[in-house]
Structures are given as C-alpha cells and as structure tokens.
Write a structure and sequence with these properties.
The protein has one helix and 15 strands. The chain has one helix spanning 65-68; strands at 18-19, 26-27, 33-34, 39-40, 48-53, 62-63, 71-81, 86-96, 103-104, 115-117, 119-120, 131-135, 148-149, 155-157, 166-170. The longest helix has 4 residues, at 65-68. 16% of the residues are buried.
Length: 171
C-alpha cells in the first residue's frame, strides 16, 4: 500500500451575528449612560473589536445626553472580527428633556402673616410628567407651616429675612 497525506493551513473567517437589545430612555442630564449591551450570538465565540457610534455616544458605548441633547436617536454598533468580517446592529434611544426650572414669588411687602404664593413656571416640552420637591430654607418652619412641599404651586408663611429656596423638578 502507498500512503500519502498533506496538511494545508486553512484560515476560516466567520461573519459575526449580533444582538442589540432595546434601549430604555435616559435623561438629558446623564453624562455616561451605559448603552454597551450589544453581543455576538454566534455558536462559537468570536474575538474582535466593537465600536458604538451616534450623537453623544463614545466608541465604548457611553452616551452623554448633555452632548446629544433631547430627542430620539439611532445608536449603531459595528463588530469586526480579528479575521476582518463585520456585522452591525442599530437601536433607537430616547433622551428625555431636562426640565427648565423657574418660579416666581411676590417681590412687594408681604402681609403680616408672611404668606407667599409661589408661581411655578417649570416646563418640559416633550410631554413628560414632572414631579416637584420644594425646600423653603426656613429654620422656623413648623408642622402647620412645613419647610417642604411636593405640590406644583405651594404656599409658605415666612418671617422677615433671606431664604434659600430650592425647587427640584424631576421627569
């Protein structure tokens, strides 16, 4: 019998298959929201490099809502295997608008009770629900005249003086 064999190196390149799950909304004030959730779904593990792109998105998949601004955006992920094969996947993400906080108060002499009706003009144009947290900075607050409120247009009775009043609006 005559027997012979040959060995030939064969380089196999496999195209990646990607899965990029839906992305939940982020806030415009988020500076490093992790959106790096895309994965390869091939039967055998692949090595390579993945890069994210989109408005306010770093190559590693951190999204900065302050850079992108509010709105709905497309985020793209491109994965390139060490063999040079590529695939891409995209998802949309909503960046919710940061509320524009503003309020007014009487600038004239108050009645003897120190009664103040605040006028909250906070707004958000993308239709989100806003919740409020007021802090009146009043060291003389009482249970009947509390130092905080969660209503839209609160009132408070003040003694004469200077107060640091804080309104926090959350969407």
């Amino acid at each position: 019998p005559i027997l012979d064999s040959i060995v030939i190196p064969v380089t196999v390149k496999v195209r990646p298959t990607l899965s990029y799950p839906a992305l939940g909304p982020i806030c415009q004030s988020d500076t490093a929201a992790n959106i790096a959730t895309a994965v390869t779904t091939n039967t055998f593990p692949l090595t390579g490099t993945g890069i994210y792109s989109g408005p306010g998105v770093s190559a590693s998949g951190a999204m900065n809502g302050q850079i992108s601004g509010s709105g709905t955006f497309t985020v793209k992920y491109i994965f390139t295997t060490t063999g040079g094969c590529t695939d891409s996947a995209s998802q949309t993400i909503q960046v919710r608008e940061k509320p524009a906080i503003s309020f007014g108060y009487p600038t004239v002499c108050l009645p003897a009770s120190g009664f103040v009706q605040f006028t909250n003009t906070t707004s958000v144009t993308d239709g989100q629900t806003i919740t409020y947290n007021w802090s009146f900075g009043d060291n003389n607050a009482t249970p009947a005249n509390p130092n905080t409120s969660t209503i839209d247009q609160p009132t408070h009775n003040f003694g004469e003086g200077t107060y640091n009043i804080r309104l926090t609006a959350t969407t």
